[in-house]
């Protein structure tokens, strides 16, 4: 696996045990995204950057008929996710892979998914535009890609922005200012019927997505 995978393992090998308890206070917008997924009955849901499995557990509880899949570059996080999903009684197919260039057929036995989502992971992926393009390619016709991540803190005090961005940098997290432009640029290639991008909580977070025809 790539050097980025090794880096993420080093950063989160210890933190994975407290990750969910600490992040619930500031990874805002995740549960609203999950509530909006609404996959078709028996449909497939892929989380790219599934981390500890927290979001997939929430999806499994909200949409119990959905078939769940997850991919992450960190072996340490996947170990935690496996244990958490088993404890919660939620079935999901989890694999280790690079969000930028994974082969869904080789890893999951299928080329596309009814819903694909990325929650606070693009800001951790160095080549995030490649990961975004790959995610769009994994969306089935009639399906949707949904994203939530840190925004640019536009309407919040400048000191807050500097402190937050400085703190996030310690975890190799960098909010993506060009996300609205990047997802709009995928509309043609993804045969999108709709592209959206909205600021949440005065710019604290950003919610983006596209829906395929």
TrEMBL record:
<keyword id="KW-0808">Transferase</keyword>
<dbReference type="GO" id="GO:0008168">
    <property type="term" value="F:methyltransferase activity"/>
</dbReference>
<feature type="domain" description="Methyltransferase">
    <location>
        <begin position="45"/>
        <end position="143"/>
    </location>
</feature>
<dbReference type="InterPro" id="IPR029063">
    <property type="entry name" value="SAM-dependent_MTases_sf"/>
</dbReference>
<dbReference type="Pfam" id="PF13649">
    <property type="entry name" value="Methyltransf_25"/>
</dbReference>
<dbReference type="InterPro" id="IPR041698">
    <property type="entry name" value="Methyltransf_25"/>
</dbReference>
<protein>
    <submittedName>
        <fullName>S-adenosylmethionine-diacylgycerolhomoserine-N-methlytransferase</fullName>
    </submittedName>
</protein>
């Amino acid at each position: 696996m790539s050097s980025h995978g090794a880096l993420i393992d080093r950063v989160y090998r210890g933190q994975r045990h407290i990750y969910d308890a600490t992040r619930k206070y500031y990874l805002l917008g995740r549960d609203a995204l999950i509530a909006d997924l609404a996959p078709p009955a028996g449909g497939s849901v892929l989380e790219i950057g599934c981390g500890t499995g927290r979001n997939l557990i929430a999806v499994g509880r909200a949409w119990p008929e959905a078939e769940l899949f997850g991919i992450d570059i960190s072996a340490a996080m996947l170990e935690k996710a496996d244990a958490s999903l088993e404890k919660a009684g939620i079935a999901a197919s989890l694999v280790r892979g690079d969000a930028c260039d994974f082969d869904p057929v080789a890893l999951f036995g299928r080329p596309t998914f009814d819903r694909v989502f990325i929650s606070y992971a693009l800001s951790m992926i160095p080549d995030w535009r490649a990961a975004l393009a790959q995610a769009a390619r994994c969306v089935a016709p009639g399906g949707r890609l949904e994203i939530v991540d840190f925004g640019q803190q536009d309407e919040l005090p400048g000191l807050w922005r500097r402190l937050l961005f400085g703190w996030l940098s310690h975890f190799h997290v960098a909010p993506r200012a060009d996300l609205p432009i990047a997802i709009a640029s995928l509309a043609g290639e993804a045969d999108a019927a709709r592209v959206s991008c909205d600021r949440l909580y005065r710019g604290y977070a950003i919610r983006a997505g596209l829906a395929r025809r």
